[in-house]
Design brief:
alpha/beta, 5-stranded parallel beta sheet, 6 helices, 28% strand
Length: 324
């Protein structure tokens, strides 16, 4: 077991964490990134990326994250493979964290970039057809289903928003919900019901995703009527699971302010959490946009604010020393 000390400790290695590391390293903070269970974040399970600025052609999510990591390391970031299991932040800076390995990590500032995970149905075919017709992000992948028949699974705001968004690419969008009414806000429901490209299938549970991941991908869904028990198949080329996201914030329950869904609360327009010197960036604090580019932007903000925090603290120390 070892103790790793740094000016900037970053938990999480997706676009937010790595961008914070790049900016932090360039500012001389010699950041340490603890990579976590999914190094590279959600983009490592995304195949085609077509909306990240700077690339005319489709790029691969894992490749993009490898490049970000290489850039972070090139400017002085230390990447450590461990999973944080405990944090001590109540006493203020320096902040301490313990890894699953038993190692301790100490940082003058802490950047939380642990992200969020899409909730999945957990039914047959879902994992095998991921990226081959099954997705959890319409704004990420909807473009690949231009002119195709698609389905959205869910009944809350996320599902309705995804269905409405997909009408930009498809003329045949079906929302599938296991109940007879939606949970989404009324104004969203009104827009959904009024849209000529959207059909709603009520009282239907998705039991499986059908198709061959090696030969054409998704071909349809196996459904069960939740009232009658009758089974059926629904043909489609794309299916978007939209039953919400779960932020990875269990480590910080009772330690940092969160909203009712577990997302970390930050000072509006900043990545500042309820504890000075602790910053949150990316999907762990953003339940609205959830894009790689917005995550990277908040990672930049976290690093810049972290640098200011340390500079101000140093100024106060010098001032107190002179006055003493």
């Amino acid at each position: 077991m070892a103790t790793h000390t740094t000016k900037m400790l970053i938990i999480g290695s997706g676009p937010a964490g790595l961008t914070a590391a790049i900016y932090g390293a360039r500012a001389g903070m010699q950041p340490i990134v603890v990579q976590g269970l999914q190094p590279g974040g959600q983009l490592t399970i995304t195949t085609d990326v077509e909306n990240y600025p700077g690339f005319r052609d489709v790029i691969q999510g894992p490749w993009l994250m490898e490049e970000m990591q290489a850039q972070a390391e090139h400017v002085g970031t230390r990447m450590l493979w461990d999973t944080i299991v405990e944090v001590d932040i109540a006493g203020g800076s320096p902040f301490r964290a313990r890894g699953d390995s038993g190692d301790e990590y100490v940082g003058d500032v802490l950047v939380i970039a642990t992200g969020a995970q899409a909730k999945w149905l957990g039914v047959p075919g879902e994992e095998a057809l991921g990226g081959k017709g099954v997705s959890a992000c319409a704004t990420c992948d909807g473009f690949f289903y231009r002119g195709k028949k698609v389905a959205v699974i869910g009944g809350g705001n996320t599902a309705v928003e995804e269905a409405l968004y997909l009408t930009n690419h498809s003329d045949d969008v079906t929302l599938i919900h296991r109940r007879g009414e939606l949970r989404a806000e009324k104004i969203l429901q009104e827009r959904l019901f009024a849209h000529p490209k959207i059909t709603v299938l009520w009282d239907k549970r998705v039991d499986a995703f059908l198709g061959d991941p090696l030969a054409g991908g998704l071909t349809g869904l196996a459904l069960t009527d939740t009232r009658t028990g009758e089974t059926s198949e629904f043909a489609c080329e794309g299916a978007f699971v939209a039953i919400g996201h779960a932020p990875s914030t269990d480590l910080f329950k009772g330690k940092l302010a969160m909203d009712e869904n577990g997302y970390l609360l930050v000072e509006p327009g900043t990545p500042k959490t309820s504890i000075p010197g602790v910053f949150a960036c990316g999907d762990v604090m953003d339940h609205t946009y959830r894009q790689a580019v917005t995550a990277a932007g908040t990672g930049c903000m976290a690093a810049l604010d972290a640098e200011r925090f340390l500079a101000e603290r140093e100024f106060v120390k010098v001032k107190e020393a002179v006055a003493g």
